[in-house]
Design goal:
Blueprint (H helix, E strand, L loop, with lengths): L3 E4 L2 E3 L5 E7 L9 E6 L6 E6 L5 E3 L7 E6 L4 E6 L8 E7 L4 E2 L3 E5 L2
Parallel strand pairs: 2-11
Antiparallel strand pairs: 1-3, 3-8, 4-5, 4-9, 5-6, 7-8, 9-10, 9-11
């Protein structure tokens, strides 16, 4: 059974950094496009970043230049490096595997002084 397990969330001050990880089980991870989404309280889930099987990336305008998505196919893991965090980045962050439609359980990121 395919599983996605996120980790790395926490409380950070504005301007700080975090690295989120998403470990995937199952086969053919390297062939799958992977994404990060987030959901703030009272808001709909929104797209954050995507990395294709070939390593191409795209980002939401709100995080462009601050966040970087990457992947390590040997570890079946996708990462989200977040820099210069802002209070408006506070949300539960979810990993998504497009080919199977699976979502992780989410990891909370709180940006506050």
């Amino acid at each position: 059974q395919v599983q996605l397990v996120e980790s790395g969330g926490g409380l950070v001050q504005p301007g700080g950094s975090l690295r989120l990880s998403c470990a995937a089980s199952g086969s053919a991870f390297s062939l799958n496009d992977m994404g990060w989404y987030r959901q703030a309280p009272g808001k709909q889930r929104e797209y954050v970043a995507l990395i294709t099987s070939g390593g191409s990336t795209s980002y939401a305008d709100s995080v462009k230049g601050r966040f970087t998505i990457s992947r390590d196919n040997a570890k079946n893991t996708v990462y989200l490096h977040m820099n210069n965090l802002k209070p408006e980045d506070t949300a539960v962050y979810y990993c998504h595997r497009y080919a199977t439609g699976h979502w992780g359980q989410g990891t909370q990121v709180t940006v506050s002084s």
